[in-house]
Design brief:
This protein has 196 residues and is an alpha+beta fold. The chain contains 4 helices and 4 strands; from the N terminus they run H-H-H-E-E-H-E-E. It has a 4-stranded antiparallel sheet with strand order 1-2-4-3.
């Protein structure tokens, strides 16, 4: 083989090696580009999803703040109502005080109370109650006003039974029976400790 032929073979070999190197570098660049691009594309989509979720979350922030304020206001109202109710529950049974309150309400509403019957004290753990029954008479409107007025008494009470006799004439005085529960705190429970 002549020197010239050798040089041509070497030149072709150089070109082949050069082309192979270029193809290898291009292939590696393409692989690196695809790998990095796919990773960046995936990361880009993840970041965009987080941004979208963040915008949705912050878009509802005003609504959440409003709902929180509304719930806090409702809680404050309930706590205030609870405090008012607890103020209407004395530390002692005080049936005679309650009877005096009932008598004043009956007088205002034109109801006549008779046969007042206090029951036994029932220990409910955090509070005690007494069931009180009485008979009374009053016109229909008077009975309605009397029952509505029970809610505004100084002493907390709950109607647990009501029986009104049926009469033909609405202007007549209806006989009726009422059973109420009144509440008081047990002696072991100190004042100011009612939330326990």
């Amino acid at each position: 083989m002549s020197k010239r032929a050798s040089q041509r073979v070497l030149q072709r070999l150089d070109w082949s090696i050069c082309v192979a190197c270029l193809l290898l570098v291009a292939g590696l660049a393409l692989i690196a580009h695809l790998t990095v691009y796919r990773g960046l594309d995936h990361e880009s989509r993840r970041v965009h999803n987080q941004i979208r979720a963040g915008r949705l979350f912050f878009g509802t922030a005003e609504e959440v703040d409003g709902r929180n304020a509304e719930l806090n206001s409702h809680l404050a109202s309930l706590e205030s109502h609870l405090t008012e109710l607890e103020a209407r529950i004395p530390e002692t049974a005080g049936e005679s005080d309650f009877l005096a309150q009932l008598a004043r309400l009956a007088s205002r509403t034109e109801v006549q109370i008779r046969d007042y019957r206090p029951g036994a004290v029932v220990d409910r753990g955090s509070y005690n109650d007494i069931e009180i029954s009485f008979s009374a008479n009053g016109r229909y409107e008077s009975i309605c006003r009397f029952l509505a007025g029970l809610e505004s008494l100084e002493r907390l009470c709950k109607v647990t039974g009501l029986d009104v006799a049926a009469l033909d004439d609405p202007n007549q005085s209806y006989p009726f029976e009422v059973t109420l529960s009144i509440y008081f705190y047990p002696p072991t429970r100190g004042a100011g400790n009612h939330h326990g």
